[in-house]
Amino acid sequence: MRIISKLFFVSNFVISKITRKQVWKKVRQKIGNIPHLSIDWDVLTDRFIEPVIWVVDHFADSLGKIFVSLVWLLIQFVVGVAYWIGLSFYWDISAELTIALVIFGHWILLNVVFHYYMALITPPGLPPDAEQIPHIKARCKKCQSVKPERTHHCSICRTCILRMDHHCPWLNNCVGHFNHRYFFLFMVYVVLGMIFLFIFGAPVIVHELSISDASEPIGYPVFHNGSHLLPVKQVEEVSSPRSRSLRRAVSVTVAILCAGILAALGALVGWHARLISRGETSIENLTNKDDREAKRLEGSTFVNPYDYGSYENWRIFLGLSEGRTWWCVFFPSVHPPRGDGISWCFKNDLTHVSFT
């Protein structure tokens, strides 16, 4: 046992040393110093990324339509299974509980469908003509359009997008100033729906998996008419083993799908919530990271000009101004975002928002 424990300790020590970043850098340097073997790691990385970029540039539009169709199919599949298996399970337990779950579940479903549809059809925002904003002199080097603050060029859409966050293949659309709120709230309500399904779907899956095929009685029910035993005509047929196997397979499939969606979108919601709290987009997070590091080396602090504090950043992002309340977040609303996507000076134009 002592020998095994020592070997375990030594192996952990070696692995920890190898996985250190400094050791990896030394390995790269030694490989690069080998005679007749010169490796340019930037070129090597580009070689691996080039095929991915080529696929995205040439097939992004077609793949985007496929991804959008998959999203609608997944929504219909999960909702259909919830009705098929879950509704009957809870109805046998309590009709009142079932009605409450149906109402709450349809509130989530309404928000998911609404925000996804609006994120699909809402243009993210294009820069206006140069005549409308003569004070902006910057122009895009790729499409030659005027380039206001926070505007970036999308190589897939082949145009500039106001306050561009990223191009989303699941929307087949860019996420920009006018549809960013729809995109984020769609993810939030999907995550909420996955949590809802896990909480109230767990008993259903346990019930489906605990039903044994061998537990069914052999034969058929009969009754005695005084002299003979006669078969009883059953009103409801007992589910066959094949039907129970299908229900189990479908239940497990939905559970695996929901787990994957919850993990992926949960992490994405947390990431975007962090960026919104800091007044950044995904693109700005990358550029600001370099600026923060440069300022840190200079001994100063980087200040994001679009950061008004977490609370105000969320109000601006959700469009909670001009008398709008939090009902616009909890229920579908088509109100536009704060600002026009061109000017971002809100310090003297932040209005109070009620929580009622």
Features:
single chain; 356 residues; mainly alpha; two-stranded antiparallel sheet; two-stranded antiparallel ribbon; 9 helices; elongated; disordered N terminus; membrane; protein-cysteine S-palmitoyltransferase activity; Palmitoyltransferase
Task: Characterise the protein shown here.
The chain has one domain (42-213, 243-351). It has nine helices and six strands. It has helices at 2-18, 21-32, 41-93, 95-121, 180-210, 241-277, 282-298, 310-318, 327-330, and strands at 152-154, 159-161, 166-168, 173-175, 222-224, 229-231. The protein is elongated. The protein starts with a helix and ends in a 26-residue tail after the last helix. Mean pLDDT is 80; it is low at 1-10, 12-21, 234-238 and 351-356. It is an enzyme of class 2 (transferase). Keywords: Acyltransferase, Membrane, Transferase, Transmembrane, Transmembrane helix. It is found in: Membrane.
Helix-strand blueprint:
Elements: H1 2-18, H2 21-32, H3 41-93, H4 95-121, E1 152-154, E2 159-161, E3 166-168, E4 173-175, H5 180-210, E5 222-224, E6 229-231, H6 241-277, H7 282-298, H8 310-318, H9 327-330
Helix pairs in contact: 3-4, 3-5, 4-5, 5-6
Membrane topology: Multi-pass membrane protein
Subcellular location: Membrane
Domain Palmitoyltransferase DHHC: 138-288
